[in-house]
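During data preparation, a discrete fold description was generated, as reproduced here:
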Amino acid sequence: MIIPLATGLIALAAGYLIRKYIAEAKINSAEESAKKIIQEAENKAGSIKRESLLEAKEEILKLRNEAEKEQRERRNELQRSERRLIQKEESLDRKIEAIEKKEDAFSRRQNEINQIHEKVNELYSQQLMELERISSLTTEEAKEFLLNKIKDEIRHDAAMMIKEIETQAKEEAQKRAKEIISCAIQKCAADQVTETTVSVVALPNDEMKGRIIGREGRNIRALETLTGIDLIIDDTPEAVILSGFDPIRRQVAKIALEKLILDGRIHPARIEEMVEKAQKEVDSIIRDEGEKATFDTHIHGLHSDLLKHLGKLYFRTSYGQSVLHHSIEVAHLAGAMAAELGVDIKLTKRAGLLHDIGKSVDQDIEGPHALIGSELAKKYGESFDVVNAIASHHNDVEPQTVEAILVQAADAVSAARPGARRETLEAYIKRLEKLEEIANSFSGVEKSFAIQAGREIRIMVKPEDIDDLGVLEIARGIAKKVEEELEYPGQIKVNVIRETRATEYAK
């Protein structure tokens, strides 16, 4: 055991000595490497320091050279400025000297002028005294005499000139107005449509007449009651004549009858359905015609309700002249005149198109259609100038603008063209409108229709408000009022209808 133990101790000692030797060798080697690295770093830092110092010296030298150059340039500029100032001072001195010489010359000249002026005043006073002595008038008296004489002469010349100018202006104005109106009429090519009080519906065959009349006339009575239009079924081959003064009702009846003929089913319930559809179709036509009128006249931005009122004029006539076509024509005429005069063309055309808009509701509202139309235009946001032009086109109010006067002129031109209007048709339609107005004025009346060319008035009353005895009283009252307020040939039949309906649905 001792031998192995000694061997182990020896081995440990040998190992320790060997490790110590190796470690010391590595430490010495590392120290030498570190010294070498430090030496190289110091050498490199010295080199960098020398280079930086050299670059700094070069930069300082460069900046110094630039500063010296700039300083030299500024010194040269100051020298040049100084020379210029010296030259200007010399020039100013010369000018001041010249001005002083001129002032001396002016002073001498002024003294001479003053002396001459004194002599002239003295001579003037002597001459004035001599004139006063010769004329026996003082200066003030002579001045007043001359002024009065000149004033009389100027007044006479001015009066003659004003009279001559007025005469020329009137002649020129008449000539210019004729040229403008002629030019406007030539530019306007509006169609003229003359409405009548009847429409014709073609039938596929004469057997259809019997179906339209119906059993004991129930179909024709239903159609006449719902539309307020007379159906004339006579010997005219394959045709039914619709008679009525209201073109809207007549159009509704025509469309409804054409639909019934195409459908083939003709009975009161179907007639009522078709009349309702026809009414909607006519409303669509009214809206389309209003829009078409604005497109034709290039007027935009009208309120939708104004478009509807404008479209109603398509079915309205004035002395046989289509009111819508007349309004379009007035818009074109007024616009052409406005272009010649250089005023607002768009405003003038707008007022011309809307000038008769009151006729779309004048059956329901009392008053002149011009004032009614102006209220409508004002209600739907039209400008003051347009409202005034509408209200004044028949001189119900004073026109405030040139455009309003042009609308008046265009309205007169459109209405005065040969063949544009028929007086008798308008009077006839007004009588029928008055007949319906009298009937509608009674309490309990639901609707009324003037038919048979005004020889009959058919009135539907509300059954819940009027009983059977009340029907007789209304008939007598309407007949009496018609006799008092209307002038008409022959006699008028007052036909009052009280109808009670009961409707239930089987479910």
User: Anything to note?
Assistant: Confidence is low (pLDDT under 50) at residues 189-195.
